[in-house]
Write a structure and sequence with these properties.
mainly alpha
Length: 181
C-alpha cells in the first residue's frame, strides 16, 4: 500500500497534470492560429475591397503587389490541403500582379527604338508634328491596352477571391478578435 501511495499516486498525478496542461496548451495554440488566420483574412478582405473600389471609381490599379496575399501565402496558419479553393483563387490573384509587373517592365523593351526615333524626329523636325503625335498616341494606346489586360486579370481574380475570403471569415467568426487596423 505504501508503494502505491508513495510512488504510483505521485507519478499518476504528474501524468494527469501533464495531460491537462498539454491539452490546454494545444487548445490555446489552435485558438491563436484561428485568430491569426482571421486577422490575415480580414486584412486581405480590406485589400481586395480597396483594389476593387479604386479600380471601379478611378479606372486604375491601386497596387503593384499583393502584400497581404504574400503574407497569407507564407503564413504557417494556412495550408493548401485545408484551404485548396482559397489558395487556387489567391494564386490566380497573385499571378495577375506578376502579369502586371511583367507588362510594366516589358514596356521599355517593346517600344525602345520607336520612342527614340519619335524623340529624334521631333527634335530635328524630320517629320511634321502631326505624324509624331499620331505615332506617339498610337504607342500610348498599345501600352494602355497591355496594362488594361493585366489589370483585368487582377480584377477577374479579386472578385471570386473576395467571396471566398468572406466565406472563410464567416466560418472562423466564432473567435472574438480585435479589429484589424
Amino acid at each position: 500500500m505504501s508503494f502505491f501511495t508513495g510512488v504510483v499516486v505521485p507519478i499518476g498525478a504528474v501524468f494527469i497534470g501533464w495531460y491537462f496542461a498539454n491539452s490546454k496548451a494545444e487548445e490555446k495554440h489552435q485558438k491563436d492560429e484561428q485568430i491569426q488566420r482571421l486577422k490575415l483574412l480580414r486584412m486581405l478582405q480590406q485589400e481586395l475591397e480597396s483594389v476593387l473600389d479604386h479600380y471601379e471609381t478611378e479606372g486604375k490599379y491601386l497596387l503593384r503587389n499583393s502584400i497581404k496575399g504574400q503574407a497569407i501565402n507564407n503564413s504557417p496558419v494556412f495550408n493548401a490541403d485545408d484551404h485548396k479553393e482559397f489558395f487556387n483563387l489567391l494564386w490566380k490573384y497573385m499571378r495577375g500582379y506578376e502579369s502586371l509587373n511583367t507588362a510594366i517592365e516589358a514596356i521599355p523593351t517593346i517600344f525602345p527604338k520607336q520612342d527614340e526615333i519619335l524623340k529624334l524626329s521631333k527634335t530635328f523636325f524630320i517629320h511634321d508634328s502631326r505624324k509624331y503625335d499620331k505615332l506617339y498616341n498610337e504607342m500610348n494606346k498599345h501600352i494602355d491596352e497591355i496594362l488594361k489586360l493585366s489589370v483585368q486579370q487582377i480584377m477577374d481574380a479579386a472578385k471570386p477571391l473576395l467571396v471566398e475570403v468572406n466565406n472563410l471569415i464567416l466560418q472562423n467568426s466564432n473567435v472574438k478578435t480585435h479589429p484589424v487596423g
